[in-house]
Design brief:
It catalyses: a ubiquinone + NADH + 5 H(+)(in) = a ubiquinol + NAD(+) + 4 H(+)(out). By secondary structure, the chain is mainly alpha-helical. The chain has helices spanning about 1-10, 15-35, 40-70, 80-95, 105-110, 115-120, 125-135, 140-155, 165-185, 185-210, 215-220, 220-225, 225-240, 250-260, 265-290, 310-325, 330-334. It is built from 17 helices and no strands.
């Protein structure tokens, strides 16, 4: 259901098909969120459903008034002004861009780590595809403002969190902010950023799933499970924060470079500053994971050595890509 929904949205040129794909996406993930059968996951599923249904309705409404005005249901022909303003708002709500981001941390907190991974990666593909297809008609100023706000709020919101899922939610908001800022200037950098973000998030969530780390406190016991995994997590977190020799620096570098080229230096400065906020909470996670020993008593039960499974292989490949890709930047840009 999830895959079909995304593919339908990405491949069609008709607004109704885009809407059908988004609806399939939403309806397919609702049971996945509520599999836990506890009040918190039910609440998360309800919150997710309400926001996504409202956003889908707005998308349908914007495409209808556009079709009414222009006489065409073609996605690439979104020329009516109120329609594209509505669409921008709806897609921002679907993605969880600030100021429509409030549902994302709540929903992630109510779902399992695996479900959180799906929501932060796969569920972003369809709305991003729609943004990519309608870029020529969307307002650049609005997108940049949304992006700026998202990167600031994504950095600020994550500062006082102790739950790894909420931290990842705010990290998602901040990364999406970077993507949206560059969207109307250089769409190919947006796609590159999305791909790298998805690989890095997958790698980090895989390590959190392997070590069963739901809170910052849990990460302190990762070293007992696997010292290698601990070091991997440290480098992955720094890569997500965008530190230079790692892959995560590549999109940030290209985006800042492009913003300066377009004479948007103030925007670039604010974005760079907001990245420092994000970096702070990644650094805090890094610190607890690798540089501290959790307060132990002799009776503490350690999680000692896990059995290898398919997750470890997946984790290995995604981690490698999300750490060592920076030297390939010149190849990707050409």
């Amino acid at each position: 259901g999830l895959a079909t929904g995304t593919i339908i949205t990405m491949s069609g040129h008709h607004w109704l098909m885009a809407w059908v794909g988004l609806e399939m996406n939403t309806l397919a993930i609702i049971p996945i969120i509520s599999t836990m059968h506890n009040p918190r996951s039910t609440e998360a599923a309800t919150k997710y459903f309400l926001t996504q249904a409202a956003a889908s309705a707005m998308i349908l409404f914007s495409s209808m008034i556009n079709a009414w005005q222009t006489g065409t249901w073609d996605i690439t022909n979104l020329s009516y002004n109120p329609a594209h303003i509505l669409l921008t708002a709806a897609l921002a709500m679907k993605l969880g861009l600030a100021p429509m981001h409030f549902w994302l941390p709540e929903v992630l907190q109510g779902s399992t780590l695996t479900t959180a991974l799906i929501i932060t990666t796969w569920q972003k593909l369809a709305p991003m595809a729609l943004i990519f297809m309608t870029l020529n008609n969307l307002s650049t100023t609005t997108l940049i403002l949304l992006g700026l706000l998202s990167s600031i709020i994504g950095g600020w919101g994550g500062l006082n969190q102790t739950q790894t899922r909420k931290i990842m939610a705010f990290s998602s908001i901040a990364h999406l902010g970077w993507m949206i800022t560059i969207a109307s200037i250089m769409p190919n950098i947006m796609i590159l950023n999305l791909m790298i973000y998805m690989i890095m998030t997958t790698a980090l969530f895989s390590s959190l799933i392997l070590s069963k780390s739901k809170t910052i406190q849990d990460t302190t016991a990762t070293w007992t499970l696997s010292p290698t995994l601990t070091i991997m997590m440290m480098i992955l977190l720094l890569s997500l924060g965008g530190l230079p020799p790692l892959t995560g620096f590549m999109p940030k570098w290209l985006i800042l470079e492009e913003l300066v080229t377009q004479n948007l230096s103030p925007t670039a400065t604010i974005m760079a500053m907001s990245a420092l906020l994000s970096l702070f909470f990644y650094m805090r996670l890094t610190y607890t994971t690798t540089l501290t020993l959790s307060p132990n008593t002799a009776q503490t039960k350690f999680k000692w050595r896990f059995k290898p499974n398919h997750m470890t292989l997946f984790m290995g490949t995604s981690s490698t890509v999300s750490i060592f890709l920076l030297p390939l930047t010149p190849l990707i840009i050409q």
